[in-house]
Amino acid sequence: MTADARHGPGVAGRLHAFNRYEIKYLVPAADVPALRDELAVRLDTDAHCPPGGYGVWSLYYDTPSLRFYWEKIEGIKFRRKLRIRHYGEAHDVTDESPVYVEIKQRVNRVTQKRRLCLPYRAARALCDRREAAEAGRRERAFADEVLELLVRLDLRPTAITGYRREALVGRDQDTGLRVTFDRRVRGRDRDFHLGTATAENRFIIPPRLAVMEIKANERVPYWLTDLAARRDLTVVRVSKYCQSVEAYGKAPRSAFHIPEEPAHDAGPAHLTPAPHGREEKTRVA
Description:
Blueprint: E1 15-28, H1 32-39, E2 43-45, E3 54-62, H2 67-73, E4 78-87, E5 98-107, E6 110-119, H3 120-127, H4 137-153, E7 156-170, E8 178-188, E9 202-203, E10 209-216, H5 222-230, H6 240-247, E11 270-273, E12 279-282
Antiparallel strand pairs: 1-6, 1-10, 2-7, 3-4, 3-7, 4-5, 5-6, 7-8, 8-9, 8-10, 11-12
């Protein structure tokens, strides 16, 4: 179980807020083990990250004219997006599964994220049916902000993304540093229930590539920028949400689009590599 999936069902959980800098790179998936081993000299594996990583599934909301998408593409200095996020396997999602309702916004170079843990049924009631969430005073203020945003901008489900994440965290003087590797990045433009067993997901980033992301509270340490330079890593403006929107033809391919390749998930049950080299049968992994 990941650090983000420890809340049980019930009414709203604790409100979380983060301010940080984020830098993304595209790396060959085959290079991830060597990069991870090199980073492990200074970073620890996230204690809540199992061997092989964990699933991250997100349902994004946008306006009919894709306002949040275009704000990202146009590089608006203040922009935001609303999503419901689940940590774990999509086929395990039930009405009682803990999920996060999140507002993620960018202010100049700083990423701010605020999120509220809710049972999935309550998150859907808030975001899809626009019903007020049961919460304490502090959490209620955030839930009301989400509700106001949904109503004022007429937000609606637009795209789902999912991927397998491995995470490392800083120690000692690098406390607050986090490096993640996201592989098998998929998306879809329909079947917006996160737990839909028959949903077909398309690779929106070629599976031979992984997204490496550095997240720091204040600054990225020199040793990490040196590693990126030595390995000739190039910063990219990749957005999984934008990739999904463009992959399904909801918007033209932007200058930042990573061309996808003709590969799809095989369906609700297929073989995927398991940790330690075994093969196991899973639903949309």
